[in-house]
From TrEMBL:
Keywords carried by this UniProt record: ATP-binding, DNA synthesis, Kinase, Metal-binding, Nucleotide-binding, Transferase, Zinc
Name assigned to this protein: Thymidine kinase
UniProt lineage: Eukaryota, Viridiplantae, Streptophyta, Embryophyta, Tracheophyta
Metabolic or biological pathway, per its Swiss-Prot or TrEMBL entry: Purine metabolism; Pyrimidine metabolism
An annotated Gene Ontology molecular function: ATP binding
Gene source species: Punica granatum
Catalytic activity: thymidine + ATP = dTMP + ADP + H(+)
GO BP annotations listed: DNA biosynthetic process; response to stress; thymidine metabolic process
Listed SUPFAM superfamilies: Glucocorticoid receptor-like (DNA-binding domain), P-loop containing nucleoside triphosphate hydrolases
Name of the gene this protein is made from: LOC116208009
Signal sequence interval, chain numbering: none
Family: Belongs to the thymidine kinase family.
Length: 284
């Protein structure tokens, strides 16, 4: 009999009460441990009836503590800002599309404001005007970073939608749009030229596309053939990128007439430059 018990102790020494390496089992400690773990699910009254310490039962968290913990788990509240970009050549209806969006947002009960560059003084500084004659009040600025101060901090906080016309003239366009949408939760709608008269990127308008929720590319009608016009042809000999003007300076054209028209303009410009140089030599 003793040999059988020794064999059992060798097979399962961890649970054997007769193992020579384990002292006498303390059944009272095991009972208290079980009672302590069980007491977590008991009310303080039941604990007192069993002569156990009520302090063993952890206090219930308050509703406020649970709400605070839920907020921490959710993290910061996500912003609801948006950025929408409207681009195209001149006479494509960019400003009209911008005003249509702004008026629609205003009709839906949102507070709106429109910004334009103070470089464009053709129709005054207090409103933006489409080529069709439609007007809308605006704030004329040299840079967008001054908008909050000029508009008023409290008024800015109440704004829902910000429209920006002739966006290619603002050097700080990217930073302003990112902060307004990502941090301030504003809906920003910008309209501007995506390319200059040489079909190169104009200002920071194209830099906004990676930030944008939507991008709309408008087209005009070619002034020479009536087809869809994607480009703006400058009709004068000026070379600077920023040259504000209307139909007297620019016209929308298709690809074929842009290439041929640009070639004619370059030829004319070269001829005029050579003529001026020859006249200078003769006068000298």
């Amino acid at each position: 009999m003793l040999s059988i018990l020794r064999m059992n102790s060798l097979i399962s020494p961890a649970v054997s009460a007769f193992s020579p390496h384990i002292g006498k089992p303390n059944f009272s400690l095991a009972f208290l441990s079980l009672a302590s773990s069980k007491s977590i699910f008991c009310s303080p009254k039941s604990l007192q009836s069993h002569d156990l310490d009520p302090n063993l039962c952890p206090p219930r968290p308050s509703v406020r503590a649970l709400q605070a913990r839920a907020v921490q788990m959710r993290g910061p509240r996500s912003s609801s800002g948006e950025i929408h970009v409207i681009v195209g050549p001149m006479f494509a209806g960019k400003t009209s599309s911008l005003l249509h969006r702004i008026e629609s947002e205003s009709s839906n009960g949102r507070s709106v404001a429109v910004i334009k560059s103070n470089k464009d003084t053709r129709y005054g500084l207090d409103s933006i005007v489409t080529h069709d004659g439609a007007k809308f009040p605006c704030v004329a600025l040299g840079d967008l970073s001054s908008f909050r101060q000029k508009f008023g901090a409290d008024a800015y906080d109440q704004l829902d939608v910000i429209g920006i016309d002739e966006a290619q003239f603002f050097e700080d366009l990217y930073d302003f749009c990112r902060e307004a949408a990502d941090q301030d939760g504003k809906i920003v709608v910008i309209a501007g030229l995506d390319g200059d008269y040489l079909r190169r990127s104009f200002g920071s308008v194209l830099d906004i596309i990676p930030l944008a929720d939507s991008v709309t590319k408008l087209t005009a009608r070619c002034e020479l053939c009536g087809r869809r016009a994607f480009f703006t042809l400058r009709k004068t000999n000026e070379k600077q990128t920023e040259l504000i003007g209307g139909a007297d300076v620019y016209m929308p054209v298709c690809r074929r007439h842009y290439v041929s028209g640009q070639a004619v303009i370059e030829t004319t410009r070269s001829f005029l430059e050579e003529s001026q140089q020859s006249q200078t030599v003769q006068c000298g």
